[in-house]
Amino acid sequence: QVQLVESGGGLVQPGGSLRLSCAASRTFFSIYTMGWYRQAPGNQRELVATIYSGGSTNYADSVKGRFTISRDNAKKMVYLQMNSLKSEDTAVYYCNAYKAPRDYWGQGTQVTVSS
User: Fold this and answer.
1) pLDDT of residue 2
2) Four-residue CA torsion sign, 47, 26, 79, 91
3) How far apart are CA 2 and CA 31, in angstroms?
4) DSSP state of 32
């Protein structure tokens, strides 16, 4: 069982920045693929960014060049640095840990981009 706790969400103006954090409880954190997903009202949950156990990353086209995912295996943390935020980035952001066949989710943190 992996418990994931997100933090760092909030209200920010367009063009601003936020850094989301996700703390994991699992001892063998480093073997998990970690991801950030988001879900806006009325929309399906979508993948934002993924970081694999080896450190390689993958991003949704909509956030490439603006968001950066990173991980600190020693601290069992994963981060999402979000820059140049747009109103369409408004959503609940979820942290995910995946190692087949196990799939774990955090409770989500709200990000609102509005002037």
Assistant:
1) 80
2) positive
3) 12
4) S
